[in-house]
Amino acid sequence: MKRRVPAILAASALALGAVQAMAPAASAQAAGEDSLAALLTSDGNQFDKNKSDFDIVTEAALAVVAAKPDSPVALIADGSQRLTVFAPTDQAFRLLAKDLTGKTIKSEKKVFEALVDLAGVDTIETVLLYHVVPGKTLTSNKVLKANGAKLMTAAGETVKVKVRTKPSVSITLKDKDRNDQDPKVVLKALDLNKGNKQVAHGIDRVLRPIDL
Fold first, then answer.
1. Which of 43, 117, 125, 197 has the lowest CB atom count within 10 Å?
2. How many domains, the chain?
3. Burial zone of 132 (CB within 10 Å; 0-12 exposed, 13-18 middle, 19+ buried)
4. Closest to 59 measured CA to CA, from 80, 78, 86, 37
5. CA distance linking residue 79 with residue 119, whole number of Å
6. What Å distances lie between residue 38 and 46, 68, 125, CA to CA?
7. For 94-129, how does the pLDDT look when each residue is reduced to its tens digit (9 = 90+)?
8. Is 158 helix (H, G, I), strand (E, B) or coil?
9. pLDDT at 112
10. In this predicted model, what pLDDT tens digit does every residue of 56-82 receive, in sequence order?
11. Would you say the C-alpha torsion 212, 158, 39, 64 has a positive or negative sign?
12. Is residue 29 part of a domain?
């Protein structure tokens, strides 16, 4: 199920005027401008059986931008803008769908469709923005030093970082849902798109901007 990615992203790039205020001051260190959108769609962007990649979050972002071209979600298509994304894996969305529906849904496409039906585009937009830290390129070495920090997201809500180094390294993101397990950063999926102004780190659950 390939998407019309170039056309959608080209249209979304024109709508970024609404989010330019989030751009940071220029950095003395040069960084590339390959966008996260380009990285996430570089594999042909198809639902598959790999639970560790990012097909569902990619489809969700494309669906929001298609429905709301002026959404700040479109920022991921403009590689000149600094940001950090904590990207839920496909398995993370499967866990969310099970929590919301009480059912185990194996197909990535059906997980995506179930979440769209349950939440709607506006809620999905809010959830996605809660995974974006605008104006900052937070590589893994910075995240590892951020124990106790509260990161302001593009949704206007904060995420608290908790880092442990013993007995092994773990990075937990504490969201607004106090009743559910907090997401952890997937250490094998750190620094996606490294060397550019936009970077991402995989997480094993979906961040929740409200208490569900």
1. 117
2. 1
3. buried
4. 37
5. 29
6. 14, 19, 19
7. 999 999 999 999 999 999 999 999 999 999 999 999
8. strand
9. 97
10. 999 999 999 999 999 999 999 999 999
11. positive
12. yes
Helix 108-129 × helix 55-67 angle, to 10°: 60
At which residue do the structure tokens 């803008």 appear?
81
User: Cα–Cα distances in Å, from 142 out to 56, 125, 138, 172, 191?
Assistant: 27, 27, 6, 14, 11
- d(C-alpha 182, C-alpha 172), whole Å: 7
- Joined tokens for residue 81: 């803008």
For residue 120, what are the domain limits?
A: 5-138+189-203
**Domain for residue 22, yes or no?**
yes
- Cα(32)–Cα(197) distance, rounded to whole angstroms? 6
Question: How far, CA to CA in Å, does 212 sit from each of 146, 179, 208?
Answer: 26, 8, 8
Burial class of residue 28 in the structure, from the number of CB atoms within 10 Å of its CB (0-12 exposed, 13-18 middle, 19+ buried): exposed
Q: In the predicted model, is pLDDT for residue 6 greater than 60? A: no
Asked if residue 116 belongs to a domain, the reply is yes
Plot region of 156 (φ>0 → left; ψ -120 to 50 → alpha; else → beta): left
